[in-house]
Specification:
Layout: H1 3-23, H2 26-42, H3 51-74, H4 93-103, H5 105-111, H6 116-127, H7 132-139, H8 143-157, H9 168-184, H10 187-192, E1 194-203, E2 215-216, H11 218-232, E3 236-243, E4 246-253, E5 256-265, E6 270-276, H12 279-294
Parallel strand pairs: 1-6
Antiparallel strand pairs: 1-2, 3-4, 4-5, 5-6
Helix pairs in contact: 1-2, 1-3, 2-3, 3-7, 6-7, 6-8, 7-8
Length: 295
Amino acid sequence: MDDSILIFDRLRPRLMGIAYRMLGTAAEAEEVVQDAWLRWHEAEDDPPDNPEAWLVTVTTRLAIDRLRAAKVQREHYAGTWLPEPQLSDSPTPEQILERADDVSIAFLAVLERLAPEARAAFLLREVFDADYDEVARTIGKSEAACRQLVHRAKVQLQDERPRYAVPRDVHQRLLRGFAAAVDSGDIAAMKSLLADDAVLIGDGGGIVTSFPKPLRGGWRIAKLMFAGFRRYGAAQRLELAPINGEWGLLRYVGGALESAESFETDGRRIVRIHVQRNPEKLARIVAARRSVTNA
């Protein structure tokens, strides 16, 4: 294996991290990274002095272009567009904790509010800890312009970013209790674990039914969960799983994955639920679970 391939393979996780956080779907992120690889391969005869900076710049700019096109498509999306969930690479507490703050579904959903260049500047600076001169070189703007982009992004996101830093074991214990309540049809227990002003946001992609607008109110959400129990009974099963760096729930109906659910909690009750029901965005989780079962 030649040096150029080794360099790219070493940097691939970082490039995927940038592309996925920019686009919110693994398939689009992989396409961007593949395009970056093709450009890297074309530059073999005249390699850059700083391969990492070169590849980060190319990947970020490709992601900005891809996101511009995606924004137009998402304006016509059926219902609410939510990011594609991913099972964490490893369910160990250390890795879950390491990734939870910058790749959670809640965080990626909030990033959808930002314009492509602002999203890139914000991620490079706030998530990947790039200096402003590096951010400026990457997106092709002045340092002053990048500082302004990041500042405006922070202001724009400040009221919507996940608000609570909850210990992993507390979050996990709360979800176990909620899953047990849903599986047993205990609507009182469900309601007690949901904040009065809890919000449920669903994505069916126009393929399966989902709420076109957020469902607000803990009692309304508890009644929705109870209706699912009444309809499916023992055919419904909730499984705790590491989703995008934090514990979430996979909901199975009749043995088939029906949804991937991500939760924001305040340590005592659930305040927000993101429910991904779009089968196209669940396909990777289904494939990952199948490969584990067949291993």
